[in-house]
Design goal:
Order of helices and strands: HHH
Strand content: under 5%
Distance between the termini: 66 Å
Number of strands: 0
Structural class: mainly alpha
Largest sheet: none
Number of helices: 3
């Protein structure tokens, strides 16, 4: 049986762990910024809820179907499909509900 390497010495794991931390921080900053924008520009609690739904629903949809897509297709293409979907939903919301 081969000797096991400590997890924090595995370069791939450490890079994925750091990337995950940045992803969580980035998404949290995105939601905070979008909420702040909705409060200052639209001055409505309902607008904040709608903006957060528009920012979160594409992510939830991708989480549900993301496992199947990740297993079926090339690994590097997943983010290419998610990001325009998320950004597009937010832009549509701003265009429809903006002042």
């Amino acid at each position: 049986m081969p000797e096991e390497m400590p997890l924090m010495r595995n370069r791939t794991f450490v890079l994925m762990f750091i990337a995950g931390i940045f992803a969580v921080v980035g998404f949290s900053m995105f939601l905070t910024t979008v909420s702040w924008f909705a409060v200052t520009e639209m001055d409505s609690a309902m607008a904040v809820g709608l903006v957060l739904m528009a920012a979160t629903i594409p992510r939830l949809v991708m989480m549900v179907f993301g496992g199947v897509v990740a297993d079926k297709y090339k690994k590097n293409d997943d983010y290419v499909y998610y990001e325009p979907n998320s950004r597009g939903s937010f832009i549509c919301f701003v265009l429809v509900c903006g002042k």
